Fold Copper transport protein.
Amino acid sequence: MMHMTFYWSRKVNLLIDSWQTQDWTDYLLTLLACLIVSAFYQFIENRRIRLKLIGAGKPFPSEIQTPLLQRKLTGNRAKLGVKVAGAILFGLSSAIGYLLMLSVMSFNGGVFVAIVVGLVVGYFFFRNEGEDSITVDTSCACA
């Protein structure tokens, strides 16, 4: 049965038919997986923003100076590599974002809370480094 309203239960079917939780151990591991994947989503977005800054040749804000990333890019081959890497990160970020959205659409309250907490934790550790002034296109309206 598919729920159409939020419910609080340890029994949840997440993303695929074989991912079903029956007991508290399965449920807590599922919530931990949701939390880790949503924090990883923020990490990927952070890397994508930094890569976009490198490709544009813009300096990093002083809060996110990284010596290894300050190398100047010269030539079309290096710029093509940055574009390819950016496209791969965009695809990975989009896929993870949509899977998180579908997980929330399971309407399980615990899954929703775990994903939101994971996004907050990921933002705290990876995204609050002066990137608010940088506009980056995103595929997910919720990011």
Remarks:
- Residues 37-55+78-124 form one domain.
- The helical segments are 24-56, 75-104, 109-127.
- The chain has a mean pLDDT of 83.
- The two ends are 29 Å apart (CA to CA).
